[in-house]
Amino acid sequence: MNTTECEIHVVQQSSPSPDPDAAEYARRLARVRAGMAERSFAALVVTDPANIYYLTGYNAWSFYTPQCLVVPADGAPILFARAMDAAGAGFTAWLPPEQVEGYPEELVHRPKVHPYDWIAERVRERGLIGTGQDVCVGFEGDSAFFTARAYLALSAGLPGVRLEDSRELVNWVRVVKSGHELAQMRIAGAIAQQAMEVALQAVAVGRRQCDVAAEITAAQTRGTAGHGGDYPAIVPMLPTGKGAGTPHLTWTDEKFLAGEATTVELAGVHRRYHSPLARTIMLGEPPRRLADTAAIVRDGMAEVLATLRPGRTAHEIHAAWNAVISVHGLTKDSRIGYSIGLGYPPDWGERTVSLRPGEHTVLEAGMCFHVILGMWMDGWGYELSEPVALTADGVERLTDLTQNLTIGR
What we know:
Shape: globular
Number of helices: 12
Structural class: alpha/beta
Strand content: 15-25%
Oligomer: single chain
Distance between the termini: 17 Å
Largest sheet: 6 strands, mixed
């Protein structure tokens, strides 16, 4: 893409980005409560910061200490956080002050007491779980932010209550995006494209990897002329040379070398909505195997995007990809995509739908995916990915960057 096209792309995304209105939050909460009713949950303890943000708008780097949103089957949800962080909820969350509680500072990082001791007591005192026999409370069992100690403290503090894994209840509610959310994803896509263009220009023979990572990070934070960027759930990844045969490597202070390829994976982020993007750059003439793989993967991407439709299953999408690469003797064991949206460290995936064999989730309009076609070989690799949104009759790419292998200097 040339500079003029990039500028047009940015201008098209420069309209204001409003916060969700009260009706939007009400719909989200109603959908979560419908899922709770199906599971007979008296309350749900939400600990994933992306889910807390989705339901309340609360946004701060406070998730390194225990915090949660308790959603009762009836009545107002209550946000529990560290005392010094609870005050910050007034700047981002829609919750009124009476729906935010801060636990005492003396509970932070103590070996014999835990914040969930206090939270459980306040849950009982506020009547958030109701009364009666066989009370069941859901919790986010696969959340990176709900530790074993947290579970034990909550369980001990709610005697007679049955705790049950919610199995990503809120995540599954989030999987179909509203019009407001799709607008945020498009803005994140514009930021991703701009950051990737910076990356592909910055990778050059003799430059240090860390210097390129710094430029990428600056571009992610700066965003576009119309919308600022946010910090990503995952830092830029730059597997280089032989390391390109392995995903998820970050950067070092070593220099880029002629004759080596680098896979770049990053995300554009706006108001916590993530649009990830991956491309590969070769410094010099590409080996035949890399050039051939790039062409096959590009054809596979075209088939995947043509097959992505509401009503299809995740299994069918993967089968379309596999039909393209298997003709050329290539195989790929890992999934080729996953649902995306809101994200906080350490992951931008939603932990719901994966595009892989045997997954028969039926796709719906409003779902968003990171279609990532990574081919990791012995000592070399190639990556091409696209963030996309499903529409009523097909798929919308959230970026329009070329899908060809980039040849650098």
